[in-house]
Design goal:
The protein has 804 residues and is mainly beta. The chain is built from 3 helices and 46 strands.
């Protein structure tokens, strides 16, 4: 009750004012001038924009041979538009220029054939200090000094509203996030699994965009929101580029000693990241190429677990994983301006990721007097990604009137080999398996945008065809512990045609956006008929996914907004994959082909107040989901192995408040503080895990109040010196069947501009105090366990880059 009262008070407070983050600061207005009598176009008519406030001239032009005009760089505000031509009556009309669209198309203006003296026209311009679209927040990777030289995933950890847990990005405590690269879903970042984020070098990235309330033009998946990773692409005239190199080291000391009888854990792990960006532009051709290679040695996992069973059995274990990773990625393409109205862009991206894991997992009894088992493994994995994109754009004669046609193809191969040595008190066995998975995705889309006098319309269609054939082959050794009957082949097929429409309206006081996306989805999962547990399954549906945004401008610097959208999270192929995963020998993860989509409705209220040197943004949000996808751990009677299997757990809720304060205190110091408090709830549910044998699991309702706090301090000193210090606190939170305890870290960075601004040197340290430890408590049916992961979080990096 106390929490609900606080929410109610906050709700009333937020209703006093809310905003979206995004405003356009420069608008192009266009239209056509006609003769009222015969509707013919009037060429060379004068079009003048004047300020409403003081009648001052702002901009002007003349119509072309077709009677059309276009005037760029008009700031949002109130104006008058004057049109005049010899032999025709002068015409004056009010003009409102909004901040939601970069283009404004004025309905046809008709002149009477009566000579009149032209009168003046007016405009009141206004500058917005924050430039982002609707609630989209945009962050430059170059400004994140304390995480320079790392991966994209590491760069995201310091962004407002973003947390990272188990290698997955969360927005406001929810990991159902859609990750895009240059506005497109790819197999590189995963269709829900977010694979690859920790291996994409941040040096390849220009900026990161966060959209908490996506419109209907985006795919309907990702109920927590969308993160768009925008890769670097220069468009300067002539030949230019950038070259850089970063080196570093992590795991500077052993935070927790190994359990007896296993190989040493990694210390002083080396890192290296050379990067190159080249661009050549001449007249109507722009050619670009970007290449990065990220090599890291990492203490990827160092988790100490104590399992306690209802019969009194206690097992202590440590899962230690030393990882070597080399990830090479390159992107190249060409922009061809065919003429003034047609543009074609063709690009390709290639990624090659090589992973070698050397793991040890000893198991001891409760008092550590006896080693029950030692599980050692070698993982040899190669991931290959290739993507080809073609995008055509036609610009109609009215500015901002566009037709976009795109095709995107993605191929992703996952080639894994595991080799296991299983040391028991009386015997030793060697097992192996090989997994081959080929993912192919074809996306075709058509998008149409038409500016209006008070906004714009957007509509389009999209077709996706996706297939993932997989094959798991087990190679048993002596006394094998692998489930030989759980291997074989499986084939995932997905077909999604979709159509959407979106309308944006804006006047002096109100903004509105209404959209609807209709998706038909057909999923088919064919399974090896000899599999021990699972059979072929699938589903299809046709569902509407509406979105709405309504905003009221209290004044020039304050805005109140309300959002609603409905979204879906379909099970990822990895979530339903039928093969047991043995990277933990006794907590085994298995997919579930019977998983169904999770549907989520979201509402949000937001307020924003901006001023010359900063802004304040706050939001109250509530999400409620049906068919919540979560992983459930259970045991089979008479066995101490734990099987973690995805299930649809029923209804869940996420309600919270987020606030961001950004302030430039002086020319030397500025800060950004972000706080997020939320309440998570998962209703009571009962499910049946089928693997390896049917067993029923029931859970009581889980609730928790959690949140996070981030403080980002930026210092800009004389002679090109910049510094940054970031502190992050993550409060305890609920996870399936348990909770994750609090975490805290401090990052710091320093950079210096050299060589007349063309060069840059930086030095940074992540988790400066080495405090980031992941602590979990799990309560299952018949067992419970605690886990503390002392994996590598502290890394020091030194880097240099040069622009030419």
């Amino acid at each position: 009750m106390r929490f609900n009262k606080k929410i109610s008070i906050s709700f009333i407070f937020l209703l006093l004012g809310v905003v979206s983050f995004a405003q356009t600061t420069s608008v192009t207005i266009s239209g056509i001038i006609k003769n009222k009598a015969d509707k013919s176009a009037i060429a060379y008519a004068n079009v003048v924009v004047k300020s409403e406030k003081d009648n001052a001239f702002v901009a002007g032009t003349v119509t072309n041979d077709e009677g059309r005009f276009s005037i760029a760089n008009i700031k949002p505000g109130n104006y008058h538009l004057e049109i005049s031509f010899i032999g025709f009556e002068n015409k004056e009309q009010p003009l409102f220029v909004g901040s939601l669209s970069a283009f404004l198309d004025i309905p046809a203006i008709e002149l009477d054939e009566i000579a009149m003296t032209l009168e003046s026209v007016v405009i009141t311009g206004e500058r917005s200090d924050i430039s982002n679209k609707l609630d989209k927040k945009t962050y430059s990777v170059a400004d994140n000094i304390s995480q320079s030289g790392g991966s994209v995933l590491q760069s995201m950890q310091n962004l407002p509203g973003v947390t990272v847990q188990d290698g997955k990005v969360q927005l406001r405590g929810n990991d159902k996030v859609t990750v895009l690269i240059d506005g497109k879903q790819t197999a590189l970042t995963g269709f829900g699994s977010q694979t690859g984020l920790d291996n994409i070098p941040s040096s390849a990235i220009d900026k990161i965009e966060i959209v908490n309330n996506p419109s209907s033009k985006y795919d309907a998946n990702g109920n927590a929101g969308i993160i768009n990773i925008v890769m670097k692409k220069n468009k300067q005239e002539g030949f230019n580029g950038k070259v850089g190199f970063t080196s570093g080291t992590g795991s500077l000391w052993v935070r927790k000693e190994n359990l007896p009888t296993i190989r040493p854990q990694y210390v002083f792990t080396p890192k290296a990241n050379p990067s190159l960006s080249l661009n050549y532009r001449k007249e109507n051709i722009n050619i670009f190429i970007q290449a990065d290679n990220l090599y890291t040695e990492t203490l990827n996992k160092n988790e100490f677990v104590t399992r306690t069973y209802d019969d009194g059995t206690v097992i202590n274990s440590q899962l230690k994983r030393n990882r070597d990773t080399n990830f090479f990625t390159t992107k190249a393409g060409i922009d061809w301006a065919i003429d003034g109205q047609n543009t074609l862009t063709v690009s390709g991206m290639y990624g090659n990721e090589k992973i070698i894991d050397r793991g040890d997992q000893p198991f001891f009894n409760g008092n550590m007097s006896q080693r029950l088992r030692l599980w050692q493994f070698l993982e040899d994995e190669l991931k290959t990604t290739a993507m080809a994109t073609a995008a055509y754009q036609h610009k109609f004669k009215e500015a901002g009137h566009l037709l976009n046609v795109g095709f995107n193809y993605t191929f992703h191969r996952e080639d894994e080999q595991y080799f296991y040595d299983n040391y028991l008190p009386t015997s030793t066995g060697t097992d192996a398996f090989k997994l081959l998975s080929d993912e192919q995705v074809y996306d075709f889309n058509i998008d149409y945008i038409k500016p209006l006098k008070y906004g714009r319309i957007e509509t389009g269609v999209k077709l996706r065809n996706r297939s993932i054939p997989t094959n798991m082959q087990f190679k048993p050794g002596v006394n094998s512990v692998l489930d030989m009957d759980a291997g074989g082949w499986a084939n995932y097929k997905e077909l999604i045609p979709a159509v959407y429409g979106n309308y944006v309206f804006e006047n002096e006081k109100w903004e509105a956006e209404l959209g609807l996306r209709m998706e038909y989805v057909r999923i088919k999962y064919d399974v090896n008929p000899d599999h021990s547990t699972y059979k072929s399954d699938g589903y299809n549906y046709t569902q509407p996914f509406p979105n709405m945004r309504l905003a009221y401008k209290l004044n020039d610097n304050n805005k109140l907004s309300v959002f609603y959208n409905r979204r879906v999270d379909r099970p990822n192929e990895v979530d339903i994959r039928i093969f047991p995963k043995y990277d933990d020998a006794e907590i085994i993860k298995v997919g579930n082909p019977a998983l169904r989509p999770q549907y989520t409705n979201s509402v949000e209220l937001g307020y924003k107040n901006s001023w010359s040197n900063g802004y304040f943004y706050s939001a109250l949000y509530h999400r409620f989901a049906n068919g919540t996808i979560t992983r459930i751990s259970s045991i089979v009677p008479g066995n101490t192995l734990i099987y973690a299997i995805f299930q649809n757990a029923g209804r869940s809720y996420n309600t919270g408040i987020e606030a961001i304060l950004n302030q430039k205190v002086s020319d030397v110091y500025s800060f950004n503080v972000n706080g997020n408090i939320y309440r998570n709830q998962i209703d009571a549910f009962t499910v049946q895990n089928l693997y390896p044998r049917p067993n029923t699991f029931s859970a009581e309702k889980q609730t928790a109040i959690s949140g996070n706090l981030k403080l980002n301090n930026t210092f800009r000193f004389a002679k090109g010196w910049d510094a940054q210090m970031t502190a992050v606190y993550l409060a305890p939170d609920i996870i399936p069947q348990g909770k994750i305890l609090s975490r805290f870290s401090i990052d710091a960075g320093l950079k210096k501009s050299v060589q007349k601004g063309k060069g840059e040197i930086f030095l940074n340290a992540t988790d400066l105090l080495n405090t980031m430890v992941i602590k979990r408590k799990i309560d299952g049916a018949g067992f419970g366990y605690t886990a503390n992961d002392y994996y590598e979080t502290q890394v020091i990096r030194l880097g240099y880059s040069y622009k030419f």
